[in-house]
Model the fold of this input.
Amino acid sequence: MLLSYRFKKRYFALAVICLTPVILPVIAITAFSIYLYNSKNNIHQADAAIVLGAAAWEDKPSPVFRERINHAINLYKTGNVHNIIFTGGIGKNSEYAEAIVGKQYAIAHGVKKSDILIEAESLTTLQNIKNALKVASSTQLSKFLIVSDPLHLKRAVLMAQDLGMDAHPSGTPTSRYRSFKSKLKFLVRETYSYFIYLLLRI
Done:
């Protein structure tokens, strides 16, 4: 029994060592593709912008969420989209759904209430997109810009396209993730989440 355990432990360690030269380049290439993804965006017009949820601080959007909303408002005011779909439920330590906070902020900044749709139940990126699709299914909306921070978009757009959506990235140019440290932390998290999604997708 003891010999078997030691053998398995050594076999696992050997497998990790042997696979490292293969795994590390794959991780690096994937991270690089996530980093560059939003720069490939050539789609500028759609029926609606889907704003992925982020934290709400009471009845105000967090700085990260605020910049996502501001980008969607700019797309709306420039005629690139005609509707905005806000996503996100009630997060930790908050009494307000992210989508409702986003809607209120957008109305206060000149977006018509009739041009806003919301889903206020989701807690994850995949739920954001699935619920936004349900909301849009009762309308004539069929082409979407996914609005979020640039490093979030490759995974989010892949999820949307897997659901059959005509979806394209539109990263906020004023992302709050500006410093090298904050970008690196976000990139590491997104790279991990991207691989997990790919595994679940198989």
